[in-house]
Amino acid sequence: DGGITQSPKYLFRKEGQNVTLSCEQNLNHDAMYWYRQDPGQGLRLIYYSQIVNDFQKGDIAEGYSVSREKKESFPLTVTSAQKNPTAFYLCASSFDRESYNEQFFGPGTRLTVL
Amino acid sequence: EDQVTQSPEALRLQEGESSSLNCSYTVSGLRGLFWYRQDPGKGPEFLFTLYSAGEEKEKERLKATLTKKESFLHITAPKPEDSATYLCAVQNFGNEKLTFGTGTRLTIIP
Questions:
Q1: Which helix (H) or strand (E) element contains residue A36?
Q2: Considering only CB atoms, which chain A residues are within 8 Å of B46?
Q3: CB atoms inside a 10 Å sphere around CB B5
Q4: How many angstroms separate the CA atoms of B68 and B49, rounded?
Q5: B103:A42 CB<8 A
Q6: pLDDT tens sequence across B30-40
């Protein structure tokens, strides 16, 4: 079965800790994305990557970091510098083509800061 | 700056009562407009992509249409299982990111 997996489903973090959220896809997609979803707000882009070993900041990159060492994987680290990290985090992927670039989403990770 | 506004915020319908959800957008060059369905606690599920004004796409009880300023998601004779939040997003040429609206929360009452 092709798809996007995220782990863990739920994550609890103490103040001052860094945590890493996993995102893996077996769709052979070129591009991968991280979004954050908060109640009453639209999804907001944190980082995206169109190719291995390259990534760009989105609208709200401060306090987050990513890596793209493999085409299939795009982990997100939420650092202690992120002031309000409690949110629902969504990973997505897509082909990087002109007319077929729909983004498909994983099931999400809910991060709660204790 | 790209903007997406969805209305209404919430909509309650009786089973079988048809209606439409609205997505108004401003974008300098529309590459695509996307509709997603999201169930509580889950990731968005892709429904449709529309590329140009006048385009229409259908899937079961859903039909999406596009003009130069807005898109409608028409739902015909809805069932309780159609209850979800429906998200609209736009993509600009030369930009990989999607700009999302805040969604319409649809509830279908049996």
A1: strand A31-37
A2: 102-105
A3: 14
A4: 15
A5: yes
A6: 999 999 999 99
